[in-house]
Amino acid sequence: MIVLITGTSQGIGKAIAELFLREGHTVIGIDRQVQSIEHEAYTHYVCDVRDIEKLPVTEDIEILVNNAGTQNEADIDINLKALIGITERYGVQPNIKSVLNIGSASAHTGAEFPEYCASKGGILAYTKNVAMRIAKYGATCNSLDPGGVLTPLNECVMTDPRLWAQIMEETPLKRWATPEEIAEWAYFLTVTNKFCTGQSILVDGGEAINYHFVWKD
User: Fold this and answer.
1) Which of 38, 102, 155, 200 has the most other CB atoms within 10 Å of its CB?
2) Sign of the C-alpha dihedral, residues 154, 31, 46, 50?
3) pLDDT(89) > 80
4) What predicted TM-score, i.e. pTM, was given to this entire model?
5) Max alpha carbon distance in the chain (Å)?
6) Position 59 confidence tier, pLDDT thresholds 50, 70, 90
7) Is the CA virtual torsion 49, 52, 56, 62 positive or negative?
8) Residue 26, pLDDT above cutoff 90
9) How far apart are the C-alpha atoms of 172 and 138, rounded to whole Å?
């Protein structure tokens, strides 16, 4: 299938793209950063997801994964408004099989920066809206909401022994997920899954049981 993934240069998005490529899919990546994946079935566009006019023109997308996001930097514009723009352009159309929005456990707990929580919370409602509109195509739309993931975005706490110890106290499984683990969930929800739709799947190692946010000053 033809898969469009945003935010593919690192972290979760890169892991998702690499998994789809290993499984034989054609992947189109959009990211503000330069290409970091070399594969004959991968096409990379350097573009800000907010620049709708500059996005690639294609009508053949079968799976859309909205992964691009930021933290404490125009959160509403990038995490929510751009996600809506991407989805309306590529996801709400007859060829679509599945749309997956990468949300956050913070959408469920509110335990993070205000605009970040609001942006991810908006994704929950928008996911249900899209699920209703693309159901006529037999397609699904869900959000995948990770807790802590070992990505460059989180390095400032991952490398701080004191804060990391506090975070592990709030995480029942005493570890964070790898990007590859989140990619497996993404693949399941978009390729294997055919009936679950309009849902927000929380994958956080039990973090939401405690919902105490720990971060660097």
Assistant:
1) 102
2) negative
3) yes
4) 0.93
5) 51
6) confident
7) positive
8) yes
9) 37
